[in-house]
Design goal:
This protein is of the alpha/beta class. The chain contains 15 helices and 13 strands.
Length: 385
């Protein structure tokens, strides 16, 4: 009879990528997210603990019940040790809880509710990009400094959008700015005209758009048609380079965007992005780049601890600075947040773009330390006050 420990050593070491591959958020998830995780596995060497690493993938269709069902099935029948990407805040929160109950790790890179490292944080979960708290500080600092103090907030009517609106209101109030109106729209809406007209008629200096994926593309197109960009500055926390390429510079020009990563930032980002482009055909967005970083950091922790015990691996991830092709000595806090700098860019006009994918003009940088939620006000039960 085969020794159980030996038998386990012969099994692949499985990790899972759960994202939207067919619904409204697929433009920032899908194949691109999967490729980023696969590149991390490739750069790590393809195996850990003497076992080949296998990446399982699935489309959660932006639905919590599907994401939860897949996560349970993977843990119970496939022995998946960790989950990555976890697009959509509601899906991410659900899978984080399930993973924690089974002592598995969840590394979120493609969802942004501040609750991920807030009240619903877990000992084995991480947030590897930015959250709505950090997002809400970048644009207000820049635009209020320019004298743009009247804001209209247009967000999705679910966890991410609600959290983003609340955090923007807090940030704007602290800077002495005013929210002159707000609208929440359902994900997958077919008509944004009433929301756009409300924004255009509000007298706002800045219209901040907190929807993503195909909804964002459709909304920006409609906003141009209604002339909203002439009435106010258009800004979004949710567009990515992938979306800009799909939309085209003619339609996207002048839009202000937040990012933690841009392929043309430096030599390291250009070199890694070239490998990614060779596989996908388009540069990675911040969520995909951070997915790569989170997966690589996880695998390093597994090797360091000598096992896949979720609690032990999570402690190692928190205690070790993040260093990789895209990250330089970043801190992982006790609440699971990887602290990254944020950048504000403006989408170039077609005439200003000199090469393929030359889409962004740098505007400003906000350090992670100055923009993330202070641990002193954290509601995460893991934070010792």
């Amino acid at each position: 009879m085969m020794n159980p420990a030996y038998a386990q050593q012969q099994q692949p070491f499985r990790i899972g990528v759960l994202c939207d591959q067919s619904s409204v958020n697929s433009t920032s998830g899908g194949k691109g997210s999967i490729t980023a995780i696969q590149l991390a596995v490739e750069d790590f060497g393809g195996q850990v603990l003497g076992r080949p690493i296998e990446v399982l993938t699935a489309d959660h269709q932006n639905k919590v019940e599907i994401a939860s069902g897949i996560a349970r099935e993977w843990m119970e029948t496939k022995n998946v040790e960790a989950f990555f990407d976890l697009q959509n805040s509601a899906c991410a929160l659900a899978v984080m809880g399930l993973a924690s109950a089974k002592n598995k790790v969840a590394v979120v890179s493609n969802a942004h509710s501040s609750q991920l490292t807030g009240k619903q944080c877990t000992p084995t979960s991480f947030h590897w990009t930015y959250d709505t708290y950090q997002l809400s500080g970048v644009q207000p600092q820049a635009f209020v400094g320019m004298g743009k103090k009247r804001w209209f907030l247009l967000n999705w009517d679910y966890a991410f959008g609600i959290s983003l609106e609340q955090d923007f209101r807090r940030s704007l109030e602290a800077l002495g700015a005013e929210v002159v109106g707000s609208v929440r729209v359902p994900a997958g809406a077919s008509d944004f005209s009433s929301a756009i007209l409300a924004a255009a008629n509000s007298g706002a200096d800045v219209v901040q758009v907190g929807v993503a994926g195909t909804d964002l593309l459709n909304l920006i197109k409609s906003a141009r048609e209604f002339g909203l960009d002439s009435a106010a500055t258009l800004a979004t926390t949710s567009i990515t380079l992938v979306d800009v390429e799909l939309l085209g510079l003619e339609a996207a020009q002048g839009l202000y965007v937040n990012e933690v990563f841009y392929w043309d930032q430096n030599e390291k980002t250009r070199a890694w992005s070239k490998r990614y482009i060779d596989k996908v055909g388009i540069p990675p967005n911040g969520e995909r780049a951070c997915g790569y970083s989170g997966a690589l950091h996880y695998l390093k922790a597994v090797a360091k601890t000598g096992g896949a015990d979720g609690a032990a691996v999570a402690r190692e991830m928190r205690n070790t600075p993040v260093n990789d092709l895209l990250s330089d000595n970043l801190t992982v806090r006790s609440d699971g947040l990887c602290v990254r700098d944020m950048y504000l860019y403006k989408v170039k006009s077609p005439s200003a773009s000199k090469t393929k994918f030359d889409d962004y003009e740098y505007v400003s940088k906000v350090t992670g330390e100055s923009s993330v939620r202070p641990l002193s006000v954290s509601e995460c039960p893991l934070v010792k006050t």
